[in-house]
Design brief:
The complex is a heterodimer. In chain A, helix 2 runs antiparallel to helix 6, helix 7 packs across helix 8 and helix 8 packs antiparallel against helix 9. The longest helix of chain A has 22 residues. Chain A has a domain of about 270 residues. In chain A, strands 1, 4, 5, 7, 8, 10, 12, 14, 16, 18 and 20 form an 11-stranded mixed beta sheet that branches. Chain A is built from 9 helices and 21 strands. Chain B is an alpha/beta fold. Chain B is about 35% helix and about 30% strand. Chain B has 9 helices and 12 strands. In chain B, strands 6-9-10-3-11-12 form a 6-stranded mixed beta sheet, with helices on both faces. Chain B has a 4-stranded antiparallel beta sheet with strand order 2-1-4-5. A two-stranded antiparallel sheet of chain B has the order 7-8. In chain B, helix 5 runs parallel beside helix 6. Classes of the chains: A alpha/beta, B alpha/beta.
């Protein structure tokens, strides 16, 4: 049973009344339209092709309360989520609300900006009107829901010709507040990189173990000509949380963007990445790594839209599914009629650690140009028992042997993530999760 | 050190070993010869604890302990090493990391100090020199993309680093050219001492020119049909396995 959407209508009216004055007419209209779109469509069901293997019924059936701004200093465990390396900025959001006291922005150079999106909206920052809610305009009902409801998020502006030496870390922490009524936060990220600029941006999502809440995030990224972006999303939510997120990327001529997605937490997780190569000579890399155990579900949907000629894309996803976990991978590559000389390559490999784990994997190629190179490959398998025996015959215990092989399997994609601090912190979380997954599988 | 009594084993429901009796003392080198399908490799894998091989009868003791009751990693830790006939490729696992972790696991079990990176490199460089190996090999993934000969050499290299008490070499000679064979054999010979024993499984007598055995056994249809000294190997080379068939009155398949 789906809840009447009235809940969202009521919540919207309340949120609307509480909005800061500075938001302006344009955004108010955008939000109203988005709500209308959401109410029209409702939550997606498994009858829709895009959601065939992913039932969001548990999300649709729950009347989540909008997360309130945190009282006091925020959660104590933010420190363990920080990078502890030099960052151009480290922005901390608690339940979707910016907490300046926990954030640092000292190492931002020149006219580059990183801070609260709500503040950027109130302050009429130049990138808001042309880009906010425009890059992600055609998203799912969840995108519309986020547009209607987002309270805050990150605003990143790297002007033309600016290269940031250190990464920007955007940290979204959920507290699991609300007790019996789980809460939802709708974080929003807008990052605009001007021509010839360069930056690394990391989004981290986390919450307390076994807390039940819903994170519904939308990220919009615009890349100017020759801009270079290294983007990461590290999702390590509570294993009882719901996480639906989409990343919408638009790249101009000769821009180079990579977006790496690491998905380790969450009970129901859906990650969409939509990258539009909208200028000649653009390059796009999408890498992904996911792990699910228990009865968790992780769904990765990616779309790379080759709209112009001479663009290249590389995509590699690797996943581990244990116990009764389910995985979905859908990799769409569109090559538009103009996009001659496209070079696209996609692989998805999944390792099933138990008989009951499953994955639905599907490449989807829509090619409308004739002089292109597109390859895709998917492989699903179990751990190589011969390799396990080989390692054991050299003295490694069964669990160690399995762990080594899994690390090697994931290492292939992990080592493609240039930021060292990501590799270390992901390794760290993986280690813990694998211990649990292997313990349950044994 | 190793005593095998009436060992029966099967794989995929088929009985391959039908009563093996064999005893190896400290410092001895035993060779197991026999035609294809006689059970040579099965014997090696049963000793290493391969999970697909099921022991249906008999016993194996190693230094007085019940070897068959141990899982494969315990066997490795107490000093039983098998050089694989077909070494497994493990992409993504670095050779140096793998070997250091394996060595320290074995050392810990023996109650010895773990080696640090420097000590490990000193040991490894010495063994690599012995086996005429390039150092860049350490930075490659285990067996991944190795030629057949490189894989076999890597097995002997691992053995040289892990220093087992009993080494079972499962057709280590197959696929090696004569130069590689000499290198591998000299690596084995360098390790021979009064406390270490070898069980060398081979199809051909050729290897035994370089690794001279104390005892040669001929395996046929899952049983040892004849044992003798190194002269037996030469006799087999000379007359083929058909000759034994008449001598023992049971079918011995011809060398292919």
């Amino acid at each position: 049973m789906t809840l009447p959407l009235d809940h969202y209508r009521t919540e919207y009216a309340r949120a609307r009344a509480g909005r800061p004055r500075g938001e302006g007419e344009a955004l108010a209209r955008t939000r109203d339209e988005a709500l209308g779109r959401f109410l029209d469509r409702g939550f997606p069901t498994t009858r829709q092709e895009e959601w065939r293997f992913t039932s969001v019924a548990p999300i649709a059936e729950q009347a989540f309360a909008l997360a309130r701004p945190p009282a006091g200093a925020g959660p104590a465990d933010v420190d363990r989520l920080r990078f502890h390396v030099v960052c151009a900025a480290e922005l901390v959001f608690v339940d979707g609300h910016y907490v300046p006291a926990l954030s640092t922005r000292g190492a931002l150079r020149g006219s580059a900006r990183a801070g609260s999106l709500a503040a950027a909206v109130s302050g009429h920052a130049p990138n808001i009107d042309p880009h906010l809610a425009r890059v992600a305009r055609d998203g799912s009902a969840f995108v519309a829901l986020n547009t209607a409801f987002f309270a805050d998020g990150a605003y990143i502006d790297v002007p033309c010709g600016t290269a940031l030496e250190h990464p920007i870390h955007v940290l979204f922490v959920s507290t699991g507040q609300g007790g019996d009524t789980p809460v939802v936060s709708h974080p929003r990220v807008l990052a605009v990189l001007g021509d010839n600029s360069q930056a690394s941006i990391v989004e981290t999502y986390a919450g307390p173990d076994s807390a039940r809440y819903f994170t519904n995030v939308v990220t919009e990224i615009v890349l100017g000509e020759h801009a270079v972006l290294d983007h990461y999303k590290v999702q390590r939510e509570s294993t009882a949380a719901y996480h639906v997120g989409s990343i919408h990327l638009r790249a101009a001529r000769s821009a180079t963007c990579s977006s790496h997605s690491v998905s380790l937490g969450g009970a129901i997780v859906r990650n969409d990445v939509v990258a539009v190569l909208g200028g000649e000579g653009g390059e796009c890399t999408l890498n992904g790594l996911y792990l699910a155990d228990g009865q968790r579900l992780v769904d990765n949907h990616t779309t790379i839209d080759h709209a112009m000629p001479h663009c290249g894309s590389r995509e590699m996803y690797r996943g581990i599914l244990a116990d009764r976990a389910r995985g979905v991978f859908n990799g769409k590559i569109i090559v538009r009629p103009d996009a001659q000389k496209t070079d696209a390559k996609q692989t998805n490999r999944a390792l099933l650690l138990s008989e009951d784990a499953q994955i639905n994997t599907k490449p989807e190629l829509e090619i409308f140009a004739n002089d292109v190179k597109c390859t895709h490959g998917a492989a699903v398998g179990q751990l190589d028992e011969d390799a396990v025996f080989y390692l054991r015959s050299r003295g490694f215990g069964l669990t160690d042997a399995r762990r080594m092989l899994i690390h090697a399997f994931l290492g292939d994609v992990l080592h493609r993530m240039p930021l060292a601090v990501i590799r270390t912190s992901v390794e760290h979380v993986l280690e813990r999760q694998l211990a649990r997954a292997l313990g349950a599988a044994a | 050190m190793l005593t095998i009594r009436n060992l029966h084993a099967r794989v995929a429901g088929r009985e391959i070993l039908r009563g093996i009796d064999l005893s190896i003392r400290f410092g001895e080198v035993h060779a197991i010869m026999g035609p294809n399908g006689s059970g040579k490799s099965t014997l090696a894998r049963v000793l290493a604890g391969h999970p697909e091989y099921e022991v249906t009868a008999g016993e194996v003791t190693f230094e007085g302990e019940d070897l068959l009751a141990m899982d494969p990693e315990t066997r490795a830790r107490i000093g039983v090493f098998m050089a694989f006939q077909y070494p497994v490729e493990i992409p993504g696992v670095n050779n140096a990391y793998f070997l250091k972790a394996a060595l320290n696991t074995v050392r810990k079990h023996r109650g010895e100090e773990e080696l640090d990176a420097m000590e490990f490199m000193t040991l490894v460089r010495d063994r690599m020199k012995q086996l005429d190996m390039d150092e860049d090999f350490l930075n490659r993934p285990v067996n991944d993309g190795f030629s057949g000969g490189e894989k076999k050499r890597n097995e002997i290299f691992q053995m040289a680093v892990l220093e087992p008490k009993l080494a079972v070499l499962d057709e280590t000679d197959s696929g090696l050219d004569i130069d590689a064979l000499r290198v591998v054999a000299s690596g084995v010979n360098a390790m021979r001492n009064a406390d270490r024993s070898f069980l060398v499984v081979t199809h051909y007598q050729r290897l035994l020119n370089y690794i001279v055995p104390d005892v040669v056994h001929v395996l046929s249809d899952g049983r040892i049909v004849r044992s003798g000294d190194k002269a037996l190997a030469l006799e087999l080379e000379d007359k083929g396995y058909g000759w034994l068939e008449q001598a023992v009155g049971s079918p011995v398949r011809e060398l292919r």
